[in-house]
């Protein structure tokens, strides 16, 4: 994707949350820097020289919160900038003073595992005849 399109997508994303795009550079690396009060900052290296996105922060306080986003990026499949930014935003919610939101995919899985086995599921050690 063209870098200017990535910048436009990042600016649009910023309108729906506390982050501001404070710096965008394409010369040395395709880098987008973001900042939100109270001192939450991170940057995204966009694909070009690299195969995938990369997120990092120069703030020691922010780094531990980026692990979720880093794991997400390294998982299978290509990611879009907006998917990466949303995962970063979710990761930083506690630092921003926002309530945690439940991970719907885990909750859905957990709900599927609860309850009685269905008619097509056999209980261990009990044959249904």
Automatic annotation (TrEMBL):
Biased composition (Polar residues): 120-129
Keywords: Cytoplasm, Developmental protein
InterPro entries the UniProt entry points to: Maturin (IPR027892)
GO cellular component: cytoplasm
Subcellular location: Cytoplasm
Pfam families xref list: DUF4581
Any one biological process term the GO annotation gives: regulation of signaling
Keyword Kinase: no
Stretches for region Disordered: 106-129
Family the UniProt entry places it in: Belongs to the MTURN family.
Protein name, as recorded: Maturin
């Amino acid at each position: 994707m063209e870098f200017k399109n990535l910048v436009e997508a990042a600016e649009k994303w910023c309108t729906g949350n506390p982050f501001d795009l404070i710096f965008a550079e394409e010369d040395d690396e395709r880098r987008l820097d973001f900042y939100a009060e109270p001192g939450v900052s991170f940057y995204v290296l966009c694909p070009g020289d690299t195969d995938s996105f990369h997120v990092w922060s120069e703030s020691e306080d922010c780094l531990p919160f980026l692990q979720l986003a880093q794991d997400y990026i390294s998982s299978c499949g290509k990611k879009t900038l907006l998917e990466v930014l949303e995962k970063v935003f979710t990761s930083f919610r506690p630092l921003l003073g926002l309530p945690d939101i439940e991970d719907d995919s885990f909750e859905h899985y957990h709900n599927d595992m609860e309850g009685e086995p269905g008619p097509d599921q056999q209980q261990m050690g009990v044959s249904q005849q």
